[in-house]
Design brief:
globular
Length: 141
């Protein structure tokens, strides 16, 4: 992979189980050789907010660990199918720098737990798919 694609991240896809009072199930996918650009310092200086950090994640589509499915198709799968595929859902899914796939859900708000434990943890704000140079560009905050 290219020289700038040296990071590892773990993507967590969320599904809600059991109706209105149900819980959340999280499906991790580890990606290696990705490009992760973090803009924490510049945003703090510009906004004076400590939580103003953001990230831009670039994932090549050439060597994916699992097949990608659009969010609606992924949500329609069984839990087994969800574990065998991944999706990118803005506002629900998140990614963490490093291989954190051994983490287990320890609270009702797994994202807040992970954000409190890991410095570089970002909820997906947007996801773009490119074909000319096949890759995903994912924004996080």
């Amino acid at each position: 992979m290219a020289i700038f694609y040296t990071k590892t991240i773990t993507l967590y896809n969320r599904t809600v189980t059991g109706g209105v009072m149900g819980g959340e199930t999280w499906f991790p996918t580890v990606f290696t050789d990705v490009r992760l650009l973090i803009n924490k310092g510049a945003n703090i200086a510009a906004t004076s907010m400590n939580d103003a950090d953001s990230a831009k994640l670039h994932i090549s589509r050439r060597n994916l660990p699992k097949p990608y499915l659009p969010p609606i198709e992924w949500q329609a799968l069984t839990d087994t199918g969800k574990g065998e595929n991944f999706t990118l859902t803005s506002g629900h899914d998140f990614f963490v720098e490093g291989d954190t796939s051994a983490e287990t859900v320890k609270s009702e708000d797994f994202f807040s737990y992970m954000k409190g434990k890991y410095s570089n943890c970002y909820k997906i704000t947007n996801a773009d798919i490119y074909d000319l140079i096949p890759h995903f560009e994912i924004g996080g905050r």
